[in-house]
Fold this sequence. Notes:
This protein is an all-alpha fold. Helices cover 76% and strands 0% of the residues. α3 (73-91) runs antiparallel to α5 and α4 (94-115) runs antiparallel to α5. The protein is elongated and about 115 Å long. The two termini are 76 Å apart.
Amino acid sequence: MSSSLRLAAPKMASKAAQSSMKVARPAFQGASVQKFSRGFSAASRQTTFTPMKRSTNLLSATRSPIAKRAYSSEMANALVQVSQNIGMGSAAIGLAGAGVGIGLVFAALINATARNPSLRGQLFSYAILGFAFVEAIGLFDLMVAMMAKFL
Length: 151
């Protein structure tokens, strides 16, 4: 039974396709002849398959302002600003490290001066050198934070 059905199925499908094409063909042919028979003109005729042009008045009248999602350049600019601020904040965390470093340099100066007061001048010059290095690292970090914000 299944083998006879396998042989009959393609014949039935081809007959169904031919019969539906015969029914649909005259309507399709008339539309295509009518479409290609006229010349090019500025005025276009509205058919079933022609997409409707949208106007802003029609969209604003049919949709509520609450349901409308605004994917515009304003939203894109706002997202860029937010990401720049987050990047600047993340990069500026290193400034706290510079502050801690400066505090450690001068804490070491006070500790060393308390141990040996006669080397106060030499230790102070070393402390100023350490302060300059730590402050330079802090300034580099500030520069990276500003680059994240403004570039």
